[in-house]
C-alpha cells in the first residue's frame, strides 16, 4: 500500500540467496500465499495492490511457511496491531497460533503506547521497522 515500507530490495536479495518467498494474493475475502521465483510477474490485484499472477500449483499453506511479514497501521510494544480494516490478516492469523512466526512491518513512528486487543486479535512475535528489529 502507499506509505508502507517497501520490501522489494529485501525480497530480491532473499531470492538471490535461494530463500523460498511467498507473497500474498487476495482471493475473495481470504489471503493465499504463493511462492515466487522472481520479481517480474506482477498483476494489479485487490485494492490495486501488486500481487503474483495466480498459479494454483505455487500456493502454499500456513504449515509450509516459517515466517509471515504482516502489514499494519499501528502496533504497540506488546505486539498488538491495528490493520487496514479488511480483516484479511486477522482471519489468516486465527488459523494458527504457533507457526509461522508473525512479524509486523512498519515505520518506527507507527509504534504506539497501547492498543487494546479485540478477542479475535492474534499478537505478533516481532516487528521490523526502518530503525531495526523488536521481539515481543
Architecture blueprint of SSEs:
Blueprint (H helix, E strand, L loop, with lengths): L7 H9 L4 E7 L2 E7 L5 E3 L5 E3 L6 E2 L6 E5 L2 E3 L4 E2 L5 H6 L7 E5 L5 E2 L13 E4 L2 E4 L1
Parallel strand pairs: 6-9, 7-10, 9-11
Antiparallel strand pairs: 1-2, 2-5, 3-4, 7-8, 11-12
Description:
- The protein has 136 residues and is mainly beta.
- It has a single domain, classed as Rossmann fold (3-Layer(aba) Sandwich).
- The chain is 11% helix and 35% strand.
- The chain has two helices and twelve strands; from the N terminus they run αββββββββαββββ.
- The strands form four sheets. A four-stranded mixed sheet has the order 6-9-11-12, with no helix packed on it. The chain has a three-stranded antiparallel sheet with strand order 1-2-5. Strands 8-7-10 form a three-stranded mixed sheet, with no helix packed on it.
- β7 and β8 form a beta hairpin.
- The protein is globular.
- The two termini are 25 Å apart.
- The mean pLDDT is 87.
Concise structural overview:
By secondary structure, this protein is mostly beta strands. It has helices at 8-16, 88-93, and strands spanning 21-27, 30-36, 42-44, 50-52, 59-60, 67-71, 74-76, 81-82, 101-105, 111-112, 126-129, 132-135. The longest helix is centred in the N-terminal third of the chain and has 9 residues, at 8-16.
Features:
single chain; 136 residues; mainly beta; Rossmann fold; 4-stranded mixed beta sheet; 3-stranded antiparallel beta sheet; 12 strands; 11% helix; globular
